């Protein structure tokens, strides 16, 4: 099972990295790059956050994973997911400077990506 979790972590990291790379290429002449970047970033963040919550739950519950319903309740809300991951990091004793960035720019980025991820039209672009 840990191999599957490792693969999921790799997929999340690749999506996040690809999203950042594509965003660096985006400009007014290539609007599609913004959609590609936002899709990859939001999906990578969502998968990584849900993976962190799954692993934390397994560590706290004798290897048992949360129910699919427990993860589905977050939907594509990156803000709620990242808040929950930050609470998990706090419970695990991580210092504030090693946890979720909390500056206005970081909050705005996550807000934009949450809006994108939660918008059904992202599948019709």
**DSSP strand count:** 0
Order of helices and strands: HHHHH
Tell me the strand percentage band: under 5%
Q: What is the helix fraction of residues, given as a range?
A: 55-70%
Instruction: Give the overall form.
Output: globular
From the alpha carbons, calculate the radius of gyration and give it in angstroms. Answer: 15 Å
What distance separates the N and C termini? 35 Å
Protein topology:
Layout: H1 2-25, H2 32-60, H3 68-72, H4 78-91, H5 104-118
Helix pairs in contact: 1-2, 2-4, 2-5
Description:
The structure is a single chain. The chain is mainly alpha-helical. It has one domain (2-123). Helices cover 70% and strands 0% of the residues.
Structure summarized in a few sentences:
The chain is mainly α.
What are its keywords?
70% helix; 125 residues; globular; mainly alpha
């Amino acid at each position: 099972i840990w191999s599957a979790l490792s693969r999921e972590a790799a997929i999340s990291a690749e999506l996040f990295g690809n999203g950042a790379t594509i965003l660096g290429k985006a400009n007014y002449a290539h609007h599609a790059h913004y959609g590609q970047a936002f899709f990859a970033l939001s999906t990578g963040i969502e998968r990584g956050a849900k993976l962190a919550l799954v692993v934390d739950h397994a560590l706290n519950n004798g290897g048992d994973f949360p129910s699919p319903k427990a993860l589905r309740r977050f939907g594509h809300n990156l803000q709620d997911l990242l808040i929950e991951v930050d609470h998990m990091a706090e419970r695990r004793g991580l210092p504030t400077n090693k946890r979720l960035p909390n500056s206005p720019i970081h909050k705005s980025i996550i807000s934009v990506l949450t809006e994108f991820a939660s918008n059904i039209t992202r599948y019709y672009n």
